[in-house]
Amino acid sequence: MFPIPTGSLLALGAILFCIGLYGALTKRNLIIVLVSIELMLNAANINLVTFSRLGVGPNISGQVFALFTITVAAAEIAVGLALLLAIFRVRKTTEVQDLNVHKH
Amino acid sequence: MVEYAWLVPLLPLVAYVFLLVLGRRAPEGIVAGVSVVLTFAAFLISALVFRSVGQSPDQTGPYVFHWLTVGTHSFTVGFEVTHLNALMLVVVSLVSTLVLLFSKGYMHGDERFPVFYQYLNLFVFSMLALVISPNLLQLYIFWEMVGLCSYLLVGFWYFKPEAALAAKKSFIVTRIGDVGLFTGIILLFLASGSFDYSTVFTAAAAHKLSLGWISNDHLVTLAAILIFVGAVGKSAQFPLHVWLPDAMEGPTPVSALIHAATMVAAGVYLVARCYPLFQLSPAALSTVAWIGGITALLAALIALTQRDIKRVIAYSTISQLGYMMMALGVGAYAYGVFHLMTHAFFKALLFLAAGSVIHALDTQDLFEMGGLYKKMKLTAWTFLAGALALAGIVPFAGFWSKDDILAAALESGHTVLYVFGLIAAFCTAFYIFRVYFLTFTGQPRDPARHEHAHEGSWVMTLPLVVLAVLATIGGFFNTPFNGYGLERYLFADSPQGAIGATTPENVGLMVLSVLVGLAGIGLAALMYWRPAIQPEKLARSLGFLYQLSFRKFYLDEIYYAIVVATGKAIAAIVDFVDRYIIDGIVRLVARIVATIGLGLKYTQTGQIQAYTAVAAFGVLILVAWAMWSIGGVL
Amino acid sequence: MTFFLNAPMIGFYIIALFILGCAVMLLSFQRVIYMALAIGGVFIGCAAIYILLGADFVGVAQLLIYAGAITILIMFAIMLTNHEAADPPHKWTVRNILSAVAAVLLGAVLLLVIRSTTWPPEVEADVNGGNSNPVAVGLALFQNYTVPFELVSLLLIVGMVGAVILARERKEDEEE
């Protein structure tokens, strides 16, 4: 008998995801927006690892997928931060609002 | 030999493609040489086909191959040689050869000389292909193609405003007829499920042509009349004849080939080809007869007073085509076709001779000519042969065919039409000799032009001589002396009780029509050769009648008032509807969209997070909806 | 209420509270550098959850990559840009309200779904096939997921090269 209920783990993931979503939608600093997206990815990872242990068909694949996600996230954050640096060099800002190129 | 008949239209097509490849700068000699040689080859093949059809009539059947299938109907293309076709092939290819040769001299020096030959070859191809089409659909395609070539050639000197206008007029007026023809073809197709002549005619004869809304007899009448409308347009019959005189703006060889010998005869050919259909409908036949008779008389009356040499001959063409229609209408199928043949010879001759005169004098006005006999003896003599043939003087070609038609009209009980024909014959003799006397006799009215007039080179005179010979002896194809050879030939493939096959010759009628012709010539001589009567005085004393003829019965003006003015009124209404209603709706729609766009502009902030928020809402809605539809959650 | 008594359960709740606390702090801090520290807490908490779930290898990888490398990378990024940057005090703009509503509603829907689903009983399952966890993960990676594994390594290379090219100083930038 595994002690932790599946629902609790999934609920943790869900709440973490929503916090990340809110952060990604509202934060003004581009770095923090990226960080919030990492938060959402972690929430997804919690789900993957949970289902690799619990649920209908426990399987090692869940952990493998979590590893893949981590790898992709690492690549993503590297490219994202590089882009950020490039933008900062030109615009001297990391504020999302200032990256608007629309002409009103 | 018959199975090689497809070569006949192919050779001019080869010439056309060849000239197209040679381009616009090709030397005149090569252009004309290739065209003439290939067309002459086509003529030789035609002659062989003509002979072998006569010898073994059973191998004429359609040679077709499958083209395409639409639904349950399958269409074929190919060719078919009947006795009528074979005759037409010979006539068309012969006249084409001579005209192509003549054009070498007439068009010499024109900077678009090769283009002219391209068009002519395309026309010859289309016309020959029209003739051997085995079904109505193929006929219609080539029918339109000859119309197109006519348009191109009438408007050949497009930089002359009159030529451009005449080209448009000829195209549009014949289109009116084409719509009728097309409707008729579609009607027959709907009823019989086929475009093939033989299928349609068999079904019509078996009373199987009927649609839900129309019985067999009515459908046959309707279809025949619609097809005749097409012929009316193409053969310039009243009331659609107005385009042909204007079409004289084209080069004269074009007038000779297209507007005298071949294309305008296509209408007559069409009626003759569909004759089994017409025979089933007395109403359609009498329509043909009356339209033909009226046209013959009307055009002859107009021709009396025209000043332009080509226009006189053009009205003469209309009149003679009227004769042919009349012949077909009264049931004298063979005579109509016979007249078509003789007419092709002598009318092409008249046009080419006129072309020779125009080439020499550079004017078309009769009253600027005169006294040309001394300078152009050959042209004068050949023109005289054509004029005598046209006037119906024994033994020239026109005498035999015209006399047969008049006799057939009288015999079939159409006395009024006979009288029409006789009056027209008188007028014909008068106007053509008016032209002859004004052109070739008397004193030059314009000495400056007369000064450098001279006969053309051999390329221009040879066709004249050949045609003059044909105009003189062409009538003997069908005389009592050879047992009505042409009639027997033609009736081999359409024996369905057409009258006139063996009309006994009526010497009294022959004498009467010759006398009428001679009277016309005599009157013309009195007025224009040995002036005993002053034409001006006569014109003045006739006053209104003269004006009526000179103004072509005001038909152009009437058409202008009715058709063009109505058209403009309708156009104005349509313009209003288009401008304020259709465009209004369009503008309204555009404005609504623009307003919505202006409103939505404010949602496009350029803030990536705003967009993402909307996307998140979308995801939320989708997830909630999915859960809702699975059930048991919310 | 008996399950409160066992140690893993208590541990899970503590870790969960820690993670959520860090996440909320991430949202509420004003200074960017503190936010980066808060995210480090979240990453470490997640690693603990993985280890608690028996996914030792993933947990360690999470520690190394996220808590180690990525957090440091973010720190560097902040330092290289305007590290004094601070988010202005939170304002309830229309967009913020809408975002909050979207996030809360999405959370509510997810929680309802989780709640209303009947989960299978939490039995002790041996997902490692008798091996230790790292061995099991390694076997799965190189037996069943070889091609994705190679593709991911390619992705990493491409990401790295791309990052270098993007972050490099260019002449045209200096000219501006």
What does this structure look like?
The complex is a heterotrimer of chains A (104), B (634) and C (176). By secondary structure, chain A is an all-alpha fold. Chain A has a single domain, classed as Helix Hairpins, CATH 1.10.287.3510. Chain A is built from three helices and no strands. Chain A has helices at 6-26, 30-53, 61-91. In chain A, helix 2 packs antiparallel against helix 3. In chain A, 57% of the residues are buried. Chain B is an all-alpha fold. In chain B, helix 1 runs antiparallel to helix 2 (28-55). The longest helix of chain B is centred in the C-terminal third of the chain and has 47 residues, at 555-601. In chain C, helix 1 (7-28) packs antiparallel against helix 2 and helix 2 (32-52) runs antiparallel to helix 3. Chain C starts with 6 loop residues before the first helix and ends with a helix. The mean pLDDT of chain C is 84. Helices cover 73% and strands 0% of the residues of chain C. Chain C has 176 residues and is mainly alpha-helical. At the A-C interface, helix 1, helix 2 and helix 3 of A face helix 1, helix 2, helix 3, helix 4 and helix 5 of C.
Gyration radius of chain A, in Å: 17 Å
Query: How far is it from the N-terminal to the C-terminal residue of chain C, by CA?
Result: 67 Å
Helix-and-strand structural type of chain C: mainly alpha
Number of helices of chain A: 3
The whole-number mean of residue pLDDT values of chain C reads 84
The quaternary organization reads as heterotrimer
> Please, how many helices of chain C?
7
Largest interface: A-C, 74 and 91 residues
Relevant CATH superfamily of the largest domain in chain C: NADH-ubiquinone/plastoquinone oxidoreductase chain 6, subunit NuoJ
General form of chain C = globular
Helix content of chain C: over 70%
Helix and strand string of chain A, N-terminal first? Answer: HHH
Main β sheet profile of chain C: none
Number of strands of chain C: 0
What is CATH's topology name of chain A?
Helix Hairpins
CATH architecture of the largest domain in chain C: Up-down Bundle
Pfam families (chain C): Oxidored_q3 (PF00499)
Family (chain C): Belongs to the complex I subunit 6 family.
Membrane topology (chain C): Multi-pass membrane protein
Subcellular location (chain C): Cell membrane
